[in-house]
């Protein structure tokens, strides 16, 4: 039975797009079998899609020291449906900020701790233009979270 990895992202800039593409490339690596990767913009993901996923990758810019309004909206719409039924599911996070991303990391930590989700990999946090190492970290993030679902 195949597992589902849901990538919920807000990708408003070329830097976020580059990170998103690297995460998707890692998550869809041919060596990872039995994991379907679904990509949804944070403003259009449904609570049902979030409920049905077996694991999550979250992508957001750090806007004014917080997660994007789009990602917050996704959680606002689905939080109570997810609360008791998604505990223990793995997740990963990639963040892009031009200044500090600590507030955005704290926000995601608070939301995911409340849901009982399990951090499956180190966050990929990038400031400014992604370097080759940043892109590789995003690829690793995608591959690691997807691999945790292979079981």
Automatic annotation (TrEMBL):
Taxonomic superkingdom: Bacteria
NADPH-dependent FMN reductase-like domain: residues covered: 50-122
GO molecular function: oxidoreductase activity
Listed InterPro entries: Flavoprotein-like_sf, FMN_Rdtase-like_dom
Entry's transmembrane regions: none
Protein name: Flavodoxin
Organism listed in the record: Mycobacterium stomatepiae
């Amino acid at each position: 039975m195949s597992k589902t990895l849901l990538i919920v992202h807000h990708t408003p800039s070329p830097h976020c797009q580059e990170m998103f593409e690297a995460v998707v490339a890692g998550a869809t690596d041919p060596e990872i079998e039995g994991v379907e990767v679904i990509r949804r913009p944070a403003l259009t993901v449904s609570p049902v899609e979030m409920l049905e996923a077996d694991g999550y990758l979250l992508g957001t810019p750090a806007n004014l020291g917080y997660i994007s309004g789009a990602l917050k909206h996704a959680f606002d719409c689905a939080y109570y449906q997810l609360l008791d039924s998604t505990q223990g599911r793995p997740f990963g996070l990639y963040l892009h900020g031009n200044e500090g991303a600590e507030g955005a990391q704290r926000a995601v930590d608070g939301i995911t701790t409340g849901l009982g989700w399990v951090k499956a990999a180190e966050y990929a946090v990038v400031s400014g233009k992604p370097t080759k190492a940043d892109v590789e970290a995003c690829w690793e993030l995608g591959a690691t979270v997807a691999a945790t679902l292979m079981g």
